[in-house]
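Objective 1b. Sequence-to-structure analysis of MFS transporter.
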Amino acid sequence: MLNKLQTLSSEVKQYLVITANYWAFTLTDGALRMLVVLYFHQLGYSPLAIAMLFLFYEFFGVVTNLIGGWLGAHIGLNRTMQIGLVLQVAALAMLAVPDQYLTVVLVMAAQALSGIAKDLNKMSAKSSIKALIPKDSAQSEQQGASFEGKLFKWVALLTGSKNTLKGIGFFLGGALLTLLGFQSAMLAMASALFLVVIASQLLLKKDLGKAKNKPKFNDIFSKSASLNYLSAARLCLFAARDVWFVVAIPVFFVSELAWQHHHVGLFMALWVIGYGIVQALSPKLVNLSTKPVHTVASQWGGILTLSVIALMFALNSELSATWVLVIGLLLFGAVFAINSAVHSYAIVALAKEDGVSIDVGFYYMANAMGRLLGTIFSGLMYQQYGLMACLVASSLLAGLAALLVTQVKVTDGAVTA
C-alpha cells in the first residue's frame, strides 16, 4: 500500500489531501447541523424557528462565494481552504459555552462563521480539481479516458462523497449528542478539526490555484454569458430542492404524518447519503461524450420537473401520503443528484484556467442564493399555503433551471457564449 502511494503523481497526492480535508470538514458540518436541530428542539423551539437559526449560514454563503473566489485567486486555494477550517474550529468553540450563554444571537453568529467556513472550503476544493487533473491528452487517450471524462469523474467523486459524508455527519451529530452532550461534542469536533488544520498546512501546495494575472475586484462578476446562464440555472435548481425539502417536509412528517423527530432525522440522513452515492456514480449513469453538456443537463432538468409534478398528482390520489412522499423523495433525490453532478462538472469545465476560483466562486454564490431563497420560502409558503404550494414552486423552479441551462455551451472545456 505504501509503495502504491509513493508512485502516485503529485497532482493525485494533492487531490487526496484536498479530498481528506473536505471530508473532515463535511463530517463536522453535517454533525453540527444535526446537533443544533436536535438540541434546540429539546429546548422547545419550533421547526420554523430552528430553520431560521440557519439563515445566516445560508446568507453568508452567498457573500463568501462571491468574494472567496477573488481571494483564492490572490492568495492561493490552499490558504482559503485553511481559513475555512480555522473558522469552523472557531464556530464549534463558540458553541461549547455553558447553556446560560447559548443565546439565539450567539448561535446565529456561530452559524454565520460556519457558513463562511463551509463555502470557503467547498470553493477551494472544487476549484483545485481543474488545476490538478493531468492534461496530457495522449496519455489520457491511452488510458481510455478523455480529459473531460476524467474531470466529470473527479468532480462527481468529490461532490458525491461530500454529500454521503454529510449524511453520515447527521448520524454522528445525534450520536455525539447522546454520548457526550452538546458542549462536549462541540469541543471534541473542534479538537479533531484542528488536527486536520495542522496536517493540511504541512501537506498542501502553497501556490495552488493562485492566479498569474491578479484579478481586479470587479472581476468577481462573471462576464461570460454561458457562466451567467449556468449560475442562474444553479440558483433555480437548488431553490427547487430547498423550497420543500428544508422546512416543509420535516414539519409535514411531524405534524401531519405523526413521525417522531428521530425518525425524521434518520430518514433525512439516509436520503443525503443515498443522494451522495448517486452523485458519485453519475459518470457511470450519464454519458457526456455523445451529447453536448447543456443538452444532457436540460434533459435531466426536465425529468426532475416531471418527478415533482408526478408527486403532486400522487398526493392528490387515494395512495398513502407517507409512501408517496418517501418514494417521491427518493426518486427526486436520485434525479436531483444527477442534475447537480452535471452542473458541477459544467462549471469546472467552463472556468478559466488562470484564477479558476473566480468563476467557481461566482457560480457557488448563485448556489448559495438558491439555498437561501429556498430556505426562506420553504418556511413562509408552507406556513401560509401548505406543502402543495411548495411543490408547485419546486416544479416551476426546476423547469426554469432546465430552460436556462440550454443556453450554456461547453466545448472541450472552453466557453462559447
